[in-house]
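1st attempt posting a full record on here, be nice pls
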Amino acid sequence: MNENQNKSYRVAVAQFAPKRGDLEVNLQRMKGVVDKVECDLLVLPELTSTGYFFLDRDELRELSEEPETGKFCQWVRALSSSSSSVVVAGFSERSGDNLYNSALIALPNETYHIYRKTHLFYKEHLLFEPGDTGFFVVEWEGARIGTMICYDWRFPESARTLALLGADIIAHPSNLIAEKRLWGPTMQTRAFENKVIAATANRFGMEERNGEELIFSGESQIVDMNGSLLSEAGATENRVLIVSVDPIRTRDKSFNSYNDLFDDRRSEFYLP
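the predicted structure (as tokens):
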């Protein structure tokens, strides 16, 4: 925990390396990382249960889950209930004939929400339907949590929409292959320009298919509402970051007696 933070809302992100195609191994690895973690919000990486690099939909479909009945989703929901924390975790969602790159937002009262990734990256277009949930905010015990997934970071509209909807904290499950020097400062900017807290849970490790390698950059981070880095992981380590923050402070968007980040917006002059 960052000693400079003394507020009571504890945000955690978990970093590990999933094994592609092996739910049982991934569950054991996740359990080993998050065991005995005490927090109010826990964010796990994108596609946590399956790994990332699949060749076709048939291959991925066998590992995809329906949120109500899937083994991984049931574990996430049970973890949320038993730990009294909100848990945001990426998984491959099966809905009828469709597959989505999704995040399960599990609440301690055993309810849940599903966010489906808005902006698909690279060969995800061959596997998933574009997300159709849109961005939304979930409130639990006074904190307002918005979710976006990985490549959504490249679009300022993602974080801005969540902030305009009232998010105090942006949960950001990721499988980022971009170097930290690119996405890390950008997420600090997203937090700064919206005055929100941003929690990126990124995986590490490498996956190879047909001679093509994807190397995931790790270095998960939590950023405060002024864009300052509160905590970060290394590039190749199993680790949970935990910081204490004050979500309520993010709601005051003013920064002097004349200026307010949202009141100063002149959307009539912005392109749609």
